[in-house]
Amino acid sequence: MKKAFRVPLLSLGNDHSMAPSPRSNALGVRRRNNLACRPLHDPDAENAIILYAPNEEEAAPASDGEEDKSVAMDSLKRLLGLDRDEATREVHVVLDPMLAQILRPHQVEGVRFLYECTTGMRVENAYGCIMADEMGLGKTLQCITLLWTLLRQSPNPRQPTIDKCLIVCPSSLVKNWANELIKWLKGRLPCIAIDGRGSKEQVVKDLEQFASGHGRGNGTPVLVVSYETLRCNVSVLQKTPIGLILCDEGHRLKNSNSLTFQALTELNVQRRVILSGTPIQNDLSEYFSLLNFANPGLLGSTSEFRRRYETVILRGRDADASDADRQLGDERLQELTSLANRFIIRRTNDILSKYLPSKYEYVVFCRLGSLQLQLYKQFSNSRAVRRLLDSKQGRASDRAEGKGGASSLQIITRLKKLCNDPSLLNLPAELEGSEDILPANWRRTQLEPLEGKMLVLDRILKQTKEVGDKIVLISNYTQTLDRFGQLCGARRYGFLRLDGSMTVAKRQQLVDQFNKSEGAEFIFLLSSKAGGCGINLIGANRLVLFDPDWNPASDQQALARVWRDGQKKTCFIYRLISTGTIEEKIFQRQSHKQSLSSCVVDEAEDVERHFSLENLRRLFQLNEASPCETHDTFQCKRCVAGRMSREGEMNYGDASTWSHYNEPELHKMADPILKRSARGIVSFVFQYKSHENAIPMQ
């Protein structure tokens, strides 16, 4: 330390030295960020999709020369990072071009809606919404675009809107969500996927890993987990702030008293998005539960909602309602719709007409066979049914949905199975007096003779194979799938089967195998409960829904498996109903629920008030007099002497607007396969056509 300290100089040779610039950073001094705050993606780029644009204040008036100098100086300050207001300046939020280039117009609209809701731009202090698009419109892609945008951007360029996202879905869709994230984001967003099949210790470890991650150092900002796993382990996540929750198949939250609903409300999350193609399932109380989860308190308490909206609207929808009740019901419906529309987006499959070939959907009423008819009459007049009908406790419609005890549920199930095929029942043990009806050599395991719906199905399968199409067969009962398998084996048809006994990985393998065009198996047997949600079977262009469910949402989920993105051929959907039986009563009740859903969600003003609720309680009466009791209840104004005299505009949610044909006019149907299959068995058909097909029918 004998010499005084001198600032080191950069030698340039010949004793010329260059002193450090006064702007250079000295050792130990934090480096100044000289770059201006900018949006992540260029808002001025061609085809840029802007979700948020800051409100830039107008500059004070100035002379031309001064204005030019001021603009130049401001630009220079921003470029050099010398603008003191830069730290608080907001920037544009622009969709990642990687996603913007693949989104269709209706999907861009959906992403913009989701962003505005989850950032509170629509209503202050309200951050939830429902995406109620019908199946096949790309709800998954729209939500992935939303979460990617929120995780990467915000009006504040120094931090994103959220730092973690939770996706909750049925266990069968966990892997599908993980795969979709990889597919659309090209592996840029790591996620943890938990479907509940691992050990308890591993599940907790994965949840804790997600809970502990924060900020830019969070390596796995997305968790995909099943409803069941989250419900059982919600305590692990209760204390961690979660930026966004996406609830796929969100109609699982229809009951606010369920354990799943209660578990999700315990999470520390403000931004909530529900995905459900069918937000109304059984009643308006379920609709309220969904809206109340998305935005708590928006529609008041449960009792307030029931008093002001539900009771009044349902009274007005009843076919026996007075004019005053209908008027008040319509007024409250309009009020509810106005409130809900701020937080719910609903587009129908009509949008797909621009991208997909035509779809023909049929409701096919099939007469019972001789043996089925005798057994059905015996069952309808049995002591068990008489006791149930004579009971003064509870409504018949409640019993039909299992609320009246196990005995009523057993009777309903047996009648539904009888409509499918008598071999599904353990006869004569399950039906008193059936031993006098069954043929002497009758055995449950025998295939022939086929009757009713099974005979129609046999004909459809034969012709489907002849034309080279593939077909999906869906039933609520695995016993019915067994019967389908027996039929396929006897006819030497190649088939695949997916039901609840299979692992998620095995299910996806079967789907991929079936969708390959060169596959030898042209029939896919599908359990509606195991495969009704999220499975893409575009390898087929025909689908048979063999038996109806009480819940129209379940049937709609199942029906959407083939007519979706990627489909290249004209699609034909067949819903088989046994004429005059309990199945027709179920379809009528579905129509009532579908009519209700259409009013609240679709705002279709022309949905007629078809059914008295009292008529829906006549579940066990067999109507042999009419070829279609459902059509009779519609009080159709387009029919003369039982035949449709003119076409009208069709509304998918209202079967009374569909084209319809009685037995002498079945030749007018568009599908030649159904024409030939219907002979001698089908009594009535409703036909819906999505749109005119630009692709020649195949």
From TrEMBL:
GO terms for cellular component: nucleus. Gene3D superfamilies: P-loop containing nucleotide triphosphate hydrolases (3.40.50.300), SWI2/SNF2 ATPases, N-terminal domain (1.20.120.850), Tandem AAA-ATPase domain (3.40.50.10810). Keywords: ATP-binding, DNA damage, DNA repair, DNA-binding, Helicase, Hydrolase, Nucleotide-binding, Nucleus, Phosphoprotein. One of its GO terms (molecular function) is DNA binding. It is found in: Nucleus. Pfam families: Helicase_C, Rad54_N, SNF2-rel_dom. GO terms for biological process: double-strand break repair via synthesis-dependent strand annealing; reciprocal meiotic recombination. InterPro entries: Helicase_ATP-bd, Helicase_C-like, P-loop_NTPase, Rad54_N, SNF2-like_sf, SNF2/RAD54-like_C, SNF2_N, SNF2_RAD54_helicase_repair. It comes from the Eukaryota. Residues 120-297 form the Helicase ATP-binding domain. Residues 456-608 form the Helicase C-terminal domain. CDD domains: SF2_C_SNF (cd18793). Belongs to the SNF2/RAD54 helicase family. This is P-loop containing nucleoside triphosphate hydrolase protein. It comes from Syncephalis pseudoplumigaleata.
